[in-house]
Design goal:
By secondary structure, the chain is of the alpha+beta class. Helices cover 44% and strands 13% of the residues. It contains 36 helices and 28 strands. Helix 24 packs across helix 28 and helix 26 packs across helix 28. The longest helix has 25 residues. The radius of gyration is 32 Å and the shape is globular. 43% of the residues are buried.
Length: 966
């Protein structure tokens, strides 16, 4: 019945709602379902995976509106589903604000702004008001009061009746529905495969939905996390309780040992829960030993600061710790940073010296850099006395028996306890390394890992952890090895130690604003890099409690019988799957293979004990990474292999970050060479505010590229494709507009442009061969910057077609086509602002689409995530006589007229400007009026308050021009 039918996702997809749900899931932070198992970079939201898989499985009927209704119902994204997910009460004030005057008078008392229910309002009426107001809220506002879709166990029976009636199924749960619909489409329960499974989002969610699952990855840490998601979270309630007891047992044994050692308790019996360390170095100008810290604020909430006191006798600084500091002392603690912009700033001689000079880095004659730091040796875990960078403990946070916390500078007794930590570690160091309790591996050179030697001299992975951290983590590993009796207990133990390593290393920042302003040690991987630090925090045992006791729950009660997990290269996959859903390392800046070694070095020996058929290295040489010919050929191998291991009616989705046209062009060639064709593409906003490598001036989102096997034998010529692409672009945009929800729009301009990308790829990959394009040649060719490939030209042409076709509200098609590319760029740029899009990358794409080369002078700001166009007042009268293509356009003259009118507070001044400066004023009057009316509407846009004045005068000036007589 469904064998040849189009899938729902090949026709439509609720882009806006899935984006909002993905964002909500991302914002849950550590509360996300799989995040608790351990760190992986770029895990996709589970709701995105669920929506994608459901979209592939569900057929598209001849009633698309009903299809969307049913799709949203299954995902609990319709009105009934959202109400089912509502677990928080709407505050009384918000209820009051969303009622009419009549309703307010009926239910509420308002005494000088204090709002209360009237005494006669019943409990039932209060519940009815909750639902009434909830249904009046926007989708975004409703989500504030809702749990995530995954937190709803099942839909009510009445909802399944509606779903079953439309799709001819007889299901009573999502798992039954998936299996039943899967059998109709594929003749058996479908197998979902992911050969780049990473953190396990796809296999876990597929299993939870009721699919059979195949999961593989080249990386052992990825496979450990995936295995845990399917097997630990797939445990029974009884097993979960047993694993929790195991967690507790190991922690209590560690607590007992550390207490016996006496390394965390002071003479008053107070226990340390945080230690702050910094590097120290000699100032080359004055010879003083300087502690290197970028801010001396320790706790913002407690107003705790470190104050430097000169010690002339030792040519060094004593550090005093003060809580309840004055405002001036807090300001001074920020200003007195001894490291600023990669420079040592000496507080004694006030001279600034580059850190590179301190390290004695030098540029050789051939232009290469010779790095000056000594490489640490295998047995070392603290600096030698003659090393450039020393380490110093400068603050400890203790907690009393009553739970009161306070900061103090280390005393002589504290420093003796530091020496005891070093001695305890020395006694165990060799034995623990042999047994695999602490890392012993050398750090391989790499894009990310080489900086560890360059910046600190570290040559072995254990050197990323200070003695306290090594002693604590090594003790935990020893206890796990001695007391774990089952495979699952060992895996839970490894996950716990990995989490501890992530939150407790020499790369863990001290954040003074966290934990209610008390300050805390932050995550090593707050971004996708190994960031060396000048000061860092170390957690005491009690402070790693949250990392240790990660949430365990039985979440896969209906786990399918077939779950196959394999550590292997994607090019060697031999399993057949009906659906492949993958997120390859495509044009990605994340060095997964290098970063994951941070965890792998802790797990190596025990990992092989638990999984004897696995390997325990990151396989850097085999990792698919970067760009270029070898990367593209590897990708072709992978996807040709996946196409060979799926049925003719099988489906694929590739997820990748939406970037520039060249990325799309390369991907088109890869998929074409692999024997796959594109059938649809959708862009989902999956990222929260980014940091580190992910922070950038571009449109953030994940593209779902839907694929089928290439079955055509047809050949075409390049010049024959353009009319076909134009028709496909326009057809796709027409379909999306027809299906869009007018009250809660699903698609924005960026989605329509993405449709143009997809339409061009759809037409290209529908042919077996294009006579003018040699796929192998294009895949192997290295292009110069700015050089366009034939595929890029086709995609750019498709984008231009889309821009011509997507006409802003208020313009008719004839007027729009008569405007210059620069004018259309400017007006569409204002449309971006309407949608709250301020990424410079969005304007770059816009400029490419209209063929506009120079547009920087049109922007008021080019700052990251704050890019926007100039208003009429910001343009003023500047540049009107210049030779650029925008200066003499009609739109620019209208802006100048507005400026004249606003400055003179007289619209006739603006009209007179237009009449005097435009030779064809009378013939252009209708276009002038359309432009002014468009600008006048900007005054009602919340995201554009800077246009209020122009909008007001544009309305008045439009009326004046309308009524102008000869």
């Amino acid at each position: 019945m469904l064998n040849g039918d189009k899938s729902f996702i090949e026709v439509q997809f609720p882009v806006s709602k899935v984006s909002k749900e993905s964002y909500k899931e991302r914002k849950a932070g550590s509360g996300q379902t799989l995040t608790g198992l351990g760190k992986w970079w770029g895990r996709k939201p589970l709701i995105l995976v669920r929506a994608a898989l459901l979209g592939l499985l569900m057929p598209a009927s001849d009633n698309p509106k009903k299809d969307m209704e049913i799709f949203l119902k299954i995902l609990t994204m319709d009105e009934e589903g959202l109400w089912l997910r509502k677990k928080q009460s709407i505050p009384i004030k918000e209820i009051y604000e969303n009622l009419s005057e009549e309703e307010r008078e009926r239910y509420f008392e308002n005494n000088n702004g204090k709002i209360t229910y009237k005494k006669n309002v019943t409990k039932k009426e209060k519940e009815q008001l909750q639902k009434l107001v909830f249904n009046r809220l926007s989708y975004d506002e409703k989500l504030k009061y809702c749990v995530r879709p995954e937190e709803i166990d099942n839909l009510p029976e009445s909802e399944w009746q509606v779903i079953n009636q439309h799709l001819g199924t007889n299901a009573k749960s999502l798992q039954e529905f998936v299996r039943e619909l899967g059998k109709k489409r594929f003749g058996k329960v479908p197998v979902v495969g992911d050969c780049f499974c990473g953190g396990g989002s796809v296999p876990f969610e597929a299993a939870r939905m009721g699919f059979d699952v195949y999961a593989s990855d080249l990386n052992p840490i990825a496979m450990l996390l995936t295995w845990a998601s399917l097997n630990i979270l797939g445990s029974s309630e009884e097993e979960i309780e047993s694993l929790k007891e195991f967690q507790k047992k190991i922690f209590e044994l560690a607590d007992k040992q550390i207490t016996e050692w006496g390394i965390e308790h002071n003479e008053q019996g107070h226990r340390a829960n945080a230690y702050l360390y910094c590097n120290e170095t000699i100032c080359p100008e004055c010879g003083w030993r300087v502690p290197l810290v970028p801010s001396w604020i320790i706790g913002k909430g407690t107003k705790t600061v470190a104050i430097l006191k000169e010690n002339p006798e030792n040519k060094s600084f004593d550090i005093e710790i003060k809580s309840n500091a004055t405002e001036k002392e807090m300001e001074l603690a920020e200003k007195m940073a001894t490291v600023k912009d990669s420079n040592l700033v000496c507080p004694h001689c006030k001279v600034s010296t580059p850190i590179a000079a301190i390290r004695k880095d030098r540029i050789k004659e051939d232009g290469s850099v010779e790095y000056g730091l000594r490489k640490w040796e295998a047995h070392e875990f603290i600096p030698r006395p003659d090393d450039v960078f020393q380490e110093r403990l400068y603050c400890i946070r203790y907690e009393t028996q009553e739970g009161k916390r306070y900061y103090t500078a280390p005393t002589e007794e504290d420093l003796k306890r530091e020496e005891e930590v070093v001695n305890l570690l020395k006694e165990r160091f060799n034995k623990w390394q042999e047994k695999g309790y602490i890392p012993s591996s050398m750090i391989e050179e790499g894009e990310e890992t080489s900086r560890l030697y360059r910046e600190r001299g570290w040559a072995y992975w254990h050197q990323l952890f200070n003695p306290r951290q090594l002693l604590m983590h090594g003790l935990l590993m020893e206890l796990i090895d001695k007391h774990a009796e089952t495979k699952k207990e060992k895996v839970v133990g490894l996950l716990e130690v990995n989490r501890c390593a992530d939150w407790n290393s020499r790369l863990s920042r001290w954040d003074p604003s966290k934990s209610g302003g008390l300050g805390h040690t932050a995550q090593t991987f707050y971004n996708q890099a190994l960031n060396t630090l000048f000061n860092y925090g170390v957690r005491g045992l009690k402070s790693i409690k949250d990392s240790w006791f990660f949430p365990l729950a039985s979440l896969l009660k209906n786990t399918p019988k077939k779950v196959f997990v394999k550590l292997s290269d994607a090019r060697g996959v031999v399993e057949n799957c009906h659906i492949w859903l993958t997120d390859p390392p495509y044009a990605d800046a994340i060095n997964y293979h290098e970063l994951s070694e941070f965890f792998l070095v802790w797990d190596k020996k025990m990992l092989l004990d638990v999984f004897p058929d696995w390997y325990a290295d990151s396989k850097r040489a085999l990792a698919i990474k970067g760009t270029g010919e070898s990367f593209k050929q590897s990708m072709v191998e992978v996807y040709k292999n996946l196409a060979a291991h799926m049925p003719d009616n099988g489906l694929q989705i590739i997820m990748f970050t939406h970037q520039n046209v060249s990325v799309w062009a390369d991907l088109a060639l890869i998929l074409w060479a692999a024997g796959l064709r594109v059938t649809a593409a959708w862009n989902i906003a999956t990222e929260t505010d980014a940091s580190g490598l992910k922070k950038g001036n571009y449109v953030k989102g994940t593209v779902l590229l839907v694929l089928r096997k290439q079955t055509s034998e047809e050949t075409a010529y390049l010049d024959e494709l353009y009319p076909e692409i134009e028709n496909e672009v326009q057809r796709q945009i027409d379909i999306m507009r027809e299906l869009d929800d007018k009250e809660d729009p699903n698609f924005s301009d960026t989605d329509y442009l993405l449709a143009a990308y997809a339409a061009s790829l759809k037409v290209l990959t529908s042919y077996k061969k294009i006579e003018d394009i040699d796929i192998q040649y294009e895949l192997s060719k290295t292009r110069l910057p700015g050089e366009e490939s034939p595929i890029e030209k086709i995609i750019n042409e498709a984008v231009k077609i889309a821009y011509d076709y997507i006409i802003p509200k208020g313009f008719d098609s004839y007027t729009w086509k008569m405007l210059t590319p620069e004018e259309r760029f400017y007006i569409k740029g204002l449309d971006l602002e309407k949608d709250g899009i301020y990424q410079l990358g969005a304007y770059q794409e816009l400029a490419k689409g209209f063929g506009v080369r120079e547009y920087r002078d049109l922007l008021a700001s080019t700052r990251a995530n704050k890019a926007r166009l100039k208003t009429a007042l910001e343009f003023g009268m500047k540049g009107l006589s210049s030779s650029d293509r925008f200066s003499n356009t009609l739109v620019r003259n209208v802006l100048a007229a507005l400026y004249q009118a606003i400055k003179a507070e007289d619209t006739t001044k603006g009209r007179n400007w237009l009449k005097n400066e435009l030779p064809n004023y009378w013939n252009q009057r209708n276009t002038i009026i359309e432009i002014l009316e468009y600008i006048s509407a900007l005054g009602n846009i919340e995201t554009m308050p800077h246009w209020k004045e122009e909008a007001k005068y544009a309305r008045l000036l439009a009326e004046l021009v309308k009524n102008d007589g000869v």
